[in-house]
Amino acid sequence: MNAPNRFELFVLEDGEKPVEVTEDTKIPNAATFKIVKQDHTLGNMIRAQVLSMPQVLFAGYKVPHPLHPYFLLKIQTDGTMTPQAVLEQACTKLIATISSLEAKFKREFSFKTTEGNVPEDPYGTTGTGAQSWGTGKDYLDF
């Protein structure tokens, strides 16, 4: 079969660099980053984070072929920061955002395990004017 072994998609080989930078000679303040052993998930998150920065004029990524585990990320800035600095700052912000999300998730999940009596409906829709799904006719009853 044409598909590579699963471990080849995410394990770096000996001496393999995770990121390669190529300065763009035709576009000012631009660079292309080849990020290996990653896919659309990381590419789209980094692209979105880079685009949220005011110094960035263009950011986009592509996966040249689905059987090759890398993507190309192109960043062009307005000249106040280098593309490398923008990528580094975006990755730092992205790590902080994901860490915050993880902490919030763990906090909310811990409430479920510590509270002994969790209400039947955590959204409180049993009040006035709310439809009660557990009583009366089922939505399939005609």
Quick recap:
By secondary structure, the protein is α+β, with helices and mostly antiparallel strands. It contains two helices and four strands; from the N terminus they run E-E-H-E-E-H. Strand 1 (19-23) and strand 2 (30-36) form a beta hairpin.
**What letter string, H or E per element, gives the SSE order?**
EEHEEH
Low-confidence stretches: none
Task: Please list the strands of the largest sheet in the order they lie side by side.
Answer: 1-2-4-3
Query: What's the number of helices?
Result: 2
Proportion of β residues? 15-25%
Main sheet summary = 4 strands, antiparallel
Mean pLDDT: 84
- Helix and strand content put the structural class at alpha+beta
Q: Radius of gyration, Cα only, in angstroms?
A: 23 Å
* Net shape: flat
* Relative helix content: 25-40%
Total number of strands: 4
- The span between the termini is 52 Å
